[in-house]
Amino acid sequence: MKKALNLCIAMLFLSFIMIACEDKEKDENPLPSAGQKEMLEVVKGLEKISEVSGFTNALKKLTPELDFEETQLTVLAIKDPTVKATESGYYGYTAEALKRHIVKGNQDFGQLGSDTLILKSISDDVLYATKVNGQIQINGIPLASNAPEKAGNSYIYVVSKTVPEVKDIPDTKYKMTFTIHECNEKWSSENNKESSVSENSTITFYKKNGEIYAAIDSIRTDDKGIGIYRHNYAEGLYYTVRKDLKGPIFNGYLVRGIFTSQSQIDSYAQYRTNTSLDLVKPGTLKLSDINGDGIINKEDMLSTKYFFAENNETDDIFIVSNNLILPEGFITIENLPLIKESLDETFTSFVSFNYTTNKRLSAPEENNLRYPDLYNLRSSEFMYDRGYRYINNFLKVATIIEEPGYPEHIKKEWNKMAARLWAQYAYVYTVMTSYYGDLVIVTRPLTVDEVLNVTRNPKAEVLHYIESLIDKVSRPEADVVRALVARLYTNEHEYAKARQLALDVVNRGNYYLPDNSNSSDHETNAEVMLGGYVITDIPDQKGKYTHPVRFTEVMLTLAECELELGKIADATLSINEILAAKGKPLYYDGITAQTLRDAIRKLWKDEMNKEGFDYMLLNRWDILITTLGQFGALDYNKLLPIPQREIDNNPNIKQNPGY
């Protein structure tokens, strides 16, 4: 019995010893924490990345010592050991450094914007995640990729070297924030965004040494167009912005965006660059008024491409292609006098060839001209050429300047001369349709292909087109066009229309008949409607000055139309006004229509001879054959032949009958 009792006591004592040993073993080998378990999954993921083997081995060795509960981590795996790996320590890394590379929580750095993200490691080290040049940096150390590798519940990123502690990062005093916008160079009412943010624009920073700008650093914008630069330069820092061929300066001016509405333009500074930049309308460049005087001109041009960097600057910068295509043929104020001079030169050449052609046609015996073929009437070809040259050159200018949105100060200066130029334009058409009948009506500059495919418009359409210019031309030159249209209607024997136009001119009271002096001796007087030209190569000139349209013509037209409409008394009054001004005897009541007709026609010949009317009047009065038939003139000579080269160049141009 006693022996059995001793055996029980011995066994009980042995069991106590065994329990104590088990407890001691449990204390020496505790269960892994949740963090350790997650790290084991991370290590498995790291083992698949060959370029971080040293870091992986170090983390394997450290993991058993870790004790934390986070199950979602972001591990910053060091690409290559900064120190040659050894079996001592943690393969060249300290435990503190390794723990700093294990960040609490899953961090998707690809979503990081321009703000700084503050992180904490498992040892509560502070880490700053920032985006620089589109690249994520952790305490200044860039990630090899912004996209993570997945391991367990955690993310793995690779860094180029050990992430330093915050205390080891140089402190910066200043922060500059830029947002770069790319101007919408294809703006339209449908595509009406002003700009889009510019990713990967390069902002380069410089220090200036004398006249030399030395590049010291650069950043790139992120996908939101934002670039942040931290620095310690209190002064003397400059920067430029570029993306491919785009920059913030265009033709020397700082770009501030794109106009997207007329209201923006109306409230903005006036453009006076004297370039095509002044063609301001929605979709064109918004330039910076540097000196703030409300006018954008040469004084606002930048002298350098380098911008001075303000400390802690925040700025929106707009960039545009430096090869942006601007409208061609921009006309400046300085160009206008030269343009007028050139057009006047072409016009006076046309007038000269008109007068010469008229003289040769109406006096063939004196000018070696042979009807009916008119083979050697070269002045007609020159007149045709100068006429369309004036029309085309004038329309090139008018089309540009009269475009909506053209600078008002240039339009204002243009309008001072445009009415006279339009009157000359109407005169050219009037003379040419009198000679050639049907004409090509040109209302805008034509391309080469269009020139080679145009057709002639009927004479009646030409007349109506010239008449439509009355409302386009401002006074007093509108009266010039009225006189010209009255001339053409009289040629067509549409006397009522011609009379009304002539009356409109008379009743306005802008012009008067001269005394018995010769108007051609004066550059201008109350009779001259379109004139004052000095043309030295006109045969048998009547004086120093040439006046293609005079008020005397209007009064003669009025008298002729009143006569042909049976208004004998009115016609007598009209012709007497002319005679009185010339100091000649007047006609009284009782004069016959034929006597009055003869008197009016004689006045036409006396007053308007050598001014390009003779041949036109022969056709108007239907006396071409009776007057020139002895020289071979035929009915078809009422119209001149179209120059053969025009027909050769364009088969759509048909020759006048008979030639």
The helix fraction, in percent, is 25-40%
Largest sheet features:
5 strands, mixed
How would you classify the helix and strand content by structural class? alpha+beta
Hey, roughly how much beta strand do the residues contain? 15-25%
* The CATH class of the largest domain: Mainly Alpha
If you average the pLDDT, what whole number results?
Answer: 89
Number of domains: 4
Unreliable runs? 16-27
Globally, the shape reads rod-shaped
Number of helices: 18
Q: What Rg, in angstroms, do the CA atoms define? A: 47 Å
Strand count: 24
Distance between the termini: 161 Å
CATH architecture of the largest domain: Alpha Horseshoe
For this structure, the CATH topology of the largest domain is Serine Threonine Protein Phosphatase 5, Tetratricopeptide repeat
Please state the oligomeric state of the protein chains shown: single chain
